[in-house]
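Action item from last meeting closed. Structure (286 res):
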């Protein structure tokens, strides 16, 4: 059942667990996420990036997720979300495609510009019943840094600024930087739990943790410190690609039945999503 992302996140916050927001790019990954959530009786968020909008078409990928979720998974709450929208124009575009939840990511802009554009996005979106996630501080990418050479202080979310940002913009969820990083990239040795506690005490909206693919042990602790949503992309991609890679490297000929080949990759993604759902504590919360 398609459900508002805001509702899914508020329930998670109140229930003391976190939900996974998993990126998809195609039918097989979408099926894997939905089937994993169904098996675990868990709410889930399925999200797409700007690059995926280009790859699959905004209307195409939105309707693929929506149709699959509505037809095959009436029993579990599924939110559909735009991940890392970088401009007001892209938000307008996906609003036309039917999205009811977006992230506007102004985290690499100056604070005042991030504040101003996020507010403009919120005014536009709330008018249409669309939820908005904003980001303050920023979550690094592997491509921007050499392993181990990160000046974490440059990235961190400032708690007082976060309070002002949330109250002024009216966003529905806040993505934070406390030592988390995108990709399988060396994260800060210990996440800044104190900072997260402070943010949580000052900010009322649900907190989102990007770059969570490699947060195995830390995820449980992060939930205790108030994280309500974890973003996962790298882990899913690797499950998919590694399966294909070992199929084609194996001595057994994989044949050319695309369904058998992609079906195995889909199964591997499903298993990887199930493990994350167990870790985040959202099983049986549907
Ligand atoms: O956090 C970003 C996501 O992993 C999206 O990556 O732009 O390559 O789809 P992408
Ligand atoms: P990972 O690269 O850790 O999977 O993070 C994904 C993400 O934050 C998507 O927004
Ligand atoms: Zn992200």
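Sequence:
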């Amino acid at each position: 059942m398609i459900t508002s992302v805001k509702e899914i996140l508020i329930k998670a916050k109140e229930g003391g667990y976190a939900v996974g927001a998993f990126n998809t790019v195609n039918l097989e990954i979408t099926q894997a996420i939905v089937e994993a959530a169904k098996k675990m009786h868990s709410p889930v968020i399925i999200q797409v990036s700007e690059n995926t909008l280009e790859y699959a078409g905004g209307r195409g990928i939105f309707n693929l997720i929506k149709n699959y979720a509505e037809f095959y998974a009436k029993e579990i709450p599924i939110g559909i979300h735009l991940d890392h929208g970088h401009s007001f124009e892209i938000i307008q575009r996906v609003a036309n495609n039917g999205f009811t939840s977006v992230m506007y990511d102004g985290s690499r802009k100056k604070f005042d510009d991030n504040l101003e554009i996020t507010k403009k996005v919120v005014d536009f979106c709330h008018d249409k019943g669309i939820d908005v996630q904003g980001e303050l501080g920023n979550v690094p990418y592997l491509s921007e840094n050499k392993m181990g050479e990160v000046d974490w202080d440059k990235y961190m979310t400032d708690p007082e600024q976060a309070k002002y940002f949330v109250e002024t913009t009216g966003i529905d969820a806040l993505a934070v930087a406390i030592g988390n990083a995108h990709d399988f990239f060396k994260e800060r040795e210990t996440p800044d739990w104190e900072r997260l506690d402070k943010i949580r005490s000052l900010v009322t909206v649900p907190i989102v943790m990007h770059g969570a693919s490699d947060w195995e042990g830390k995820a449980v602790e992060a939930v205790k410190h108030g994280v309500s949503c974890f973003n996962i992309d790298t882990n899913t991609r690797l499950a998919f690609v590694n399966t294909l890679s070992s199929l084609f490297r194996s001595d057994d000929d994989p044949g050319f039945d695309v369904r058998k080949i992609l079906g195995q990759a889909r199964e591997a993604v499903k298993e990887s999503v199930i493990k994350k759902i167990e870790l985040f504590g959202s099983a049986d919360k549907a």
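Note appended to the action item: Residues 179 and 188 are 5 Å apart (CA to CA).
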